[in-house]
Specification:
This protein is an alpha+beta fold and 477 residues long. Helix content is 36%, strand content 17%. The strands form 5 sheets. The chain has a 5-stranded antiparallel beta sheet. Strand 13 and strand 14 form a beta hairpin.
């Protein structure tokens, strides 16, 4: 393991810094070698040990890459998804969960094929921009193509949509009875197809890029024509006869990540996020709309709980439509609830990072039929909030190594920034402070890169940042 320090964040609210640091200090204890059950960051997998079992979960493994990329190479962000690629079957199948001790798939009657949300290309595109490792794209592309072909052959129906069990999305007790064509799975197929096309562009493979771009637009057209309801301004699951099921779940927001709605439809979806009768709860965003009779203030699993992975997805979808201020505001509000639950005011009430949270107040969610829900210190998804959203949305940094760019998008100037973030073989520091001369941004880098500062509705400027130390006054931009 490369012994780098983790990147340090600076923020005017020290509690945010503390929760970020605490998360990194906990992550290493979840790297376990399944063969002996011992902590092992070199040969282990990133798992949540439960009842002496080590189950590797596709959904969580994909999402964990989005925060592990910021570990300054202390942890291998690709390790878990490479484990899934190594399990690929002759027909291209990759199952949603594996027992890491026996390496056998974990399937059940609710999901006999063990299909999960298809998002490997989404993760690979992000990994590429954080590592600039083009060779990896070339190596994994045959695996990703075989996987997409298996999904097509096994689940694609004559109408061009995919029929899978709705539990494939991990929303186990969500009230989606009669769901045959889940909106989230189909939107995720579109997400993956669009990133497969982008990976084709990176490899300069025009045929590959065109094949998946065509697939993406075909799915986009079908989702818009069959799953969108004009009256309520929302996307819904379909039953076997292509009738829309009138249940509003967080699953619909995968469409924004896939850039399926046009601007008008996206505005209507955003309205639901702001509506207290829909998804506009105090703690954004519940997994089920408030006006549904199954909605529970206690969360009851996927009947209202706030799930960090879905919040990450919604916030990234908002970014796609330029809703940057709303994305940041929701990330901060979410983090305040996470903080209150980690450090409760009441004595003798233990605090932790949880798998799921209450929608209306601080505290962990519960589930009627599962006393173990919500699991404590569930870093596999909780760290998306305390690390990835912290860096990307609260501090506002967007980084691409192949482009040699760092974009800093902030609504207004505050004392904040990042220190010693590793960009491959380049450590960078970006800090904003108020000095006697006004607002100043101090920077340090080992190599040249291009820095864009975007103070929303005020200033936007791109500058080449040389190696060494430098600073700039905002007023002079």
């Amino acid at each position: 393991m490369n012994k780098h320090d983790f990147p340090k964040i600076h923020f005017y609210d020290q509690d945010f810094v503390d929760i970020y640091n605490k998360t990194w200090s906990w992550v290493s204890s979840f790297w376990v070698n399944p063969a002996n059950g011992e902590q092992d960051t070199d040969n282990g997998l990133f798992v949540y040990p439960e009842n002496s079992k080590f189950i590797v979960n596709q959904f969580e493994s994909i999402f964990s890459t989005f925060f592990l990329v910021y570990s300054n190479r202390n942890f291998d962000a690709c390790k878990n998804i490479d484990y899934f690629y190594a399990r690929q079957e002759e027909n291209g199948a990759i199952r949603w969960k594996y027992d890491a001790v026996t390496n056998s798939p974990v399937v059940d009657s609710l999901n006999p094929e063990g299909v999960g949300l298809p998002l490997f290309a989404f993760a690979e595109f992000n990994l590429y921009h954080k590592s600039a490792n083009k060779r990896r794209i070339k190596e994994v592309m045959p695996t990703l193509q075989k996987y997409m072909a298996w999904l097509d052959e096994t689940f694609k129906q004559e109408n061009g949509l995919y029929a899978v069990p709705h539990v494939a999305s991990s929303m186990i007790n969500s009230p989606r009875e009669g769901c045959y064509y889940p909106v989230d799975f189909n939107a995720c197929m579109a997400v993956n197809a669009s990133y497969m096309s982008a990976l084709g562009d990176i490899l300069n493979d025009k045929d590959l890029s065109f094949q998946y771009r065509k697939m993406y637009f075909s799915l986009k057209t079908r989702i818009n024509s069959l799953m969108w309801d004009n009256e309520t301004g929302f996307y819904y699951d379909l039953d076997k006869n292509e009738n829309r099921l009138n249940v509003k779940t967080i699953a619909a927001y995968w469409t924004m990540l896939a850039e399926i709605p046009n601007a008008d439809k996206a505005d209507l979806l955003v309205n639901h996020l702001n509506d207290p009768k829909s998804f506009g709860t105090e703690h954004p965003f519940p997994s089920l709309s408030v006006d549904n009779p199954n909605f529970s203030e206690e969360g009851n699993g996927y009947c209202g709980s706030v799930m960090p992975a879905f919040n990450f997805m919604v916030i990234k979808g908002l970014e796609r439509y330029g809703q940057l201020e709303l994305a940041r505001e929701c990330a901060i509000r979410h983090l305040y609830f996470v903080l209150e639950t980690l450090m409760p005011n009441e004595e003798n009430v233990p605090g932790d990072l949880y798998e799921a949270y209450l929608p209306g107040k601080d505290g962990k969610a519960s589930m009627k039929d599962d006393p173990s829900f919500a699991r404590p210190r569930y870093l596999l998804t909780a760290a998306l909030s305390t690390i990835a959203l912290m860096i990307e949305n609260v501090i506002g940094l967007s980084i691409s190594l192949p482009r040699k760019t760092v974009d800093w998008i902030i609504p207004n100037l505050e004392i904040m920034g990042i220190e010693n973030l590793s960009l491959k073989r380049n450590l960078i520091t970006i800090l904003s402070n108020k000095s006697t001369r006004g607002w100043e941004i101090q920077m340090e880098s080992e190599k040249l890169y291009y820095f864009t500062i975007n103070i929303l509705n005020q200033k936007k400027k791109t500058l080449p940042i040389p190696s060494g130390k430098c600073s700039m006054l905002i007023d002079k931009l």
